[in-house]
Amino acid sequence: MSLQTRLIELERKHRQLEDAIAQAVASPSSSDLTVAELKRKKLLLKDEIERVRLTMPEPTLH
């Protein structure tokens, strides 16, 4: 899997977690623990996205 493909997949998962967090916050039946776990996963994904971005080569201008 290329770095670009990996980055796209991580960003997709990050957006899905944002949606899941919004739904959990809006739902009266979800617990604070559930929301906290989703936020933790989102932060881990954000860290992974940054690591991938740092390993990608800089685009060159021709």
From TrEMBL:
A Pfam family in this protein?
DUF465
InterPro entries tied to this protein: DUF465, DUF465_sf
Highest taxon in the source lineage: Bacteria
* Coiled-coil ranges (or none): 7-55
- Identify the keywords attached in UniProt to this record, alphabetized: Coiled coil
| Entry protein name | YdcH family protein
Give the organism, scientific name.
Bosea minatitlanensis
Upper taxonomic lineage = Bacteria, Pseudomonadati, Pseudomonadota, Alphaproteobacteria, Hyphomicrobiales
